[in-house]
Design goal:
- The protein has ten helices and 18 strands.
- It is an alpha/beta fold.
- It has a single domain (4-38, 45-153, 246-345), classed as FAD/NAD(P)-binding domain (3-Layer(bba) Sandwich), CATH 3.50.50.
- Strand 14 (194-201) and strand 15 (204-211) form a beta hairpin.
- The longest helix is centred in the last third of the chain and has 26 residues, at 293-318.
- It is globular.
Length: 346
């Protein structure tokens, strides 16, 4: 007999969202998360309008800075698009996590400070971290142990005939104590990396870099004159945080009584900023289809299709000789650029 209805492995934002969804569906829920909240992470911290709506649907409205749109920038060329249906929000990851953690506890979720360890399942239930449940949601991120335990991690493969590792990308983030100079998320396309500038408060700006192995924050910023000038003499606020490699491929998202959700279920890149919105949608779908893995697989593919294809296309451009043509092309075709931004902002 199961101790609980749903066991969630991983108490990040997507795991907490899955726990809240499961409670709303009437399940007893336990979350396993060894880290002490609030949990920080290297990320861009910009919530697109659709993501902000999803967060509010969970009963959370975290503090931050309104974001009116996206600006692609490179060597003096600029392509701006303002969101058609209202702003997004720049939110410190710690503030978002704290708000979701509080909402989960208020919903009746039990959070245990422990690791999952081995995942063992049979026809009637699944056990991890000393808890037996009817269903398990693996929400434990890019380096998911649940995914590895179930043998659902696909081997890395070279893309387009390139040598293995050529397109491995990593994320780095550091905050700067300075007033925002724009209400747009600025994406500066440097020679090797993209720098995302996201205001998260009246006197705090986050800078996230996406690039190849060996990317260094100060070194890359020095190659982007406009951004380097903005940050000249500005004191960093906190350490550099890193994440990666970002690309994760999976062979399936459901096996037996386990469902993979969020980054654990597969990830392309952070370039389009879609991780949380897609993860929240997956959490809702996983809870709705606990008893039908095949239906969840189909829902997962439908929910991630735009993100997978658009992100893969942009990453392909970012890691090829056409990299320097991306911003000029966006500036020359503002309608197309705006349509892509709106597609991702939903």
């Amino acid at each position: 007999m199961a101790d609980v209805g749903v066991l969630v492995v991983g108490g990040g934002p997507v795991g907490l969202a899955a726990a809240i969804e499961a409670r709303r569906a009437g399940h007893d829920v336990v979350v396993l998360e060894p880290r002490t909240p609030p949990v920080d992470k290297a990320c861009g911290e910009g919530l697109m309008p659709g993501t902000l709506a999803a967060v509010r649907r969970l009963g959370v409205d975290p503090p931050g800075w309104d974001l009116a749109g996206i600006s692609y920038r490179q060597d003096g060329r600029v392509a701006d698009h303002r969101f058609a249906d209202g702003p997004g929000r720049g939110v410190r990851r710690t503030a978002l996590h704290a708000a979701l953690h509080a909402a989960a506890l208020e919903a009746g979720v039990t959070v245990l400070a422990r690791r999952a360890g081995a995942v063992v399942q049979d026809d009637d239930g699944v056990t991890a971290g000393g808890v037996r449940a009817a269903w398990l949601l693996g929400c434990d991120g890019l380096h998911s142990r649940v995914r590895r335990e179930l043998g659902l991690e696909a081997p890395a493969r070279p893309a387009g005939g390139r040598r293995p590792g050529r397109r491995r990308r990593f994320g780095l983030r550091r905050h700067y104590r300075v007033a925002p100079w724009s209400d747009l998320v600025e994406v500066h396309w440097g020679p090797r990396a993209e720098a995302y500038v996201t205001p998260v408060g009246p006197d705090l700006v986050g800078v996230a870099l996406l690039g190849p192995p060996g990317t260094d924050v100060d070194g890359e910023l020095a190659t982007i004159p406009e951004l380097a000038a903005r940050l000249a003499g500005v004191a960093p606020d906190g350490p550099v945080r890193g994440a990666g490699p970002l690309r994760v491929r999976t062979t399936a998202r459901a096996r037996g009584r386990v469902r993979l959700v969020g980054d654990a279920s597969g990830y392309v890149d952070a370039l389009t900023g879609e991780g949380l919105r897609v993860g929240f949608a997956q959490a809702r779908a996983a809870v709705a289809h606990l008893d039908d893995g095949g239906t969840y697989e189909r829902a997962w593919r439908a929910l991630t299709r735009d993100d997978r294809w658009l992100t893969a296309g942009l990453v392909s451009a970012a890691t090829s000789p056409v990299r320097r043509a991306v911003v000029p092309a966006a500036a020359r075709a503002p309608g197309l650029y705006g349509a892509v931004v709106e597609r991702l902002a939903r």
